[in-house]
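Reminder to self: keep the SMILES exactly as supplied, no canonicalising. Ligand is pyridoxal-5'-phosphate.
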Amino acid sequence: MSLKERDKKHIWHPLTQHKLHPETIGITKASGCILTDENGNKYIDAIASWYTSMYGHCNPQITRQVAEQMQTLDQVVFSGFTHEPAVKLSEALIEILPENQNKIFFSDNGSTSVEIGIKMALQYHFNQGEKRNVLIAFEDGFHGDTFGAMSVSGLSVYNGPFEDFFLKVKRIPTPNGKNHEAILKALETIVSQHKIAGFVYEPLVQGAAAMKMHDVEGLEHILKFCKANQIITVADEVMTGFGKTGRYFASDYMETKPDIICLSKSLTAGLLPMAITSCSQHVYDAFYSDDISKGLFHGHTYSANPLACTAALAGINLLKSEDIQNNIKRIIQSHKQFGAHIKLHPKVESIRQTGIIIALDLNTKMERYGNLRDQLFHFFMKNGVFLRPLGNTIYILAPFVISNEQLQKVYQVIEDALDTL
Ligand SMILES: Cc1ncc(COP(=O)(O)O)c(C=O)c1O
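Structure tokens returned for the bound complex:
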């Protein structure tokens, strides 16, 4: 029996209505930018498996180091113990994170890193005797699937059963270059009516909102406003982190740095699940006390797993390398040329790019998970390219190691799909 047949017996997949979408594709191998299925078909992974495998799948430089680490220390409790991979990773992260970040808190997925960021923001005020119980977030944001993360996500398409249990959140529009005064006005009204603990946001690019991109200056104004009102800023860089915007972090584009940063996905180069919530000394100090209850009582069994830390370290070393930095520049240029060409296509309404992320909106209406979207997905797969259109949008977020030839193939398949629509 094939993998996909055996899968149907016992497996419940994420984000899937199995009655409507009973089919899966059995993947047996991944190498560089190529996924191979159980029938031997090959696909270019043009979304780096949800933005994780940025240095290519099964990158030998990473797998070798993790295999070596496996021989000496596999897993150990991280309360009361520490180890070299975690310490080294904290040092490497602090070196590349925005300059105000100084403490690293470990967990194991993007949603949880946001959950922890929210808890840090709420407890920061609580520890100082101030009850601030409302958060601010962007419209259309996506921060994950745990309760805190769902609460701050504006894109809660299928969250109906849970909404009664959400945290209190006030929403503001995303900065588009024309609306920053309106946003500041809205913020002033919110602050005058509620006790705001924190602002949770995806900086510059909202991934799940179909790569919606923001104005740097507008975001700068919002962050400044938050600082002036002691609102803890929580940058969710789960998607944008580690080079995808053209800089190490999207927060590097703004002068005002976030108090807290959430990281996951390509943190471990796509090898193992891990997440980080980093914060400034100022945030950490609000928890540092003779009073035990002022500590952050949050912890996961696999916190700072040594293998995941080793993968992350290997990934950061690659990110800093000349090769990867040159690749990032090459992909940015290549996307620019493709963008200039494809925006003239009659089916394209608009196009946008930040770093190596490029997105094009079609002028044909599509449901987020509707038929046309499925049709496009199947067209891409049939032609050897793994892309997941979102709503009306086709986006590329390929591994940094994608070759020019592979990129050209991705572009061509997109253009052919538009021609057949
Ligand atoms: C910006 C952002 N935050 C949080 C998450 C949730 O991460 P995870 O799926 O690892 O829980 C995602 C996932 O796509 C994301 O894009």
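Points to follow up:
The mean pLDDT is 96.
Residues 109-111, 114, 142-144, 202, 207-208, 236, 238-239, 264 surround pyridoxal-5'-phosphate (CB under 6 Å).
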